[in-house]
Design brief:
This protein is mainly alpha-helical. The protein has one domain. The protein has 3 helices and no strands.
């Protein structure tokens, strides 16, 4: 009689999902859209209002999150990997897009007043 217990069987690994096709138009649109909107708002309206920094900050954050989710769903192989990579890429691209929007705002001639 064997007194040592047998280890329980290992849980099944999560299934590997099929790679989603990356739509480059939506990816670059989400990433560069706020930059273009910020630059256009400075060129059309000027710096009479504070519209350009608002578009740059909020639009850049949302656009970067959208681009990060699109890329995370493309790169991730499992559902948990897709979720984790989407959050990671969303944070990275939000910072990148807000920074690009700030430079687009300043390059278009916005006069930042403190």
């Amino acid at each position: 009689m064997n007194a040592t217990p047998t280890p329980p069987p290992l849980a099944n690994e999560p299934p590997i999902l099929r790679r989603k096709k990356l739509n480059w138009f939506w990816f670059f649109g989400a990433l560069l859209g706020p930059v273009l909107l910020t630059s256009l708002s400075v060129l059309v309206i000027g710096d009479k209002t504070d519209l350009a920094p608002g578009i740059g900050f909020f639009g850049g954050a949302l656009g970067g999150m959208g681009a990060g989710v699109i890329l995370g769903c493309h790169v991730g192989r499992t559902s948990s990997g897709r979720a984790g990579l989407s959050v990671l890429f969303a944070l990275i691209f939000a910072v990148v897009s807000v920074t690009m929007s700030a430079f687009g705002c300043l390059a278009s001639g916005y006069n930042l007043k403190f």
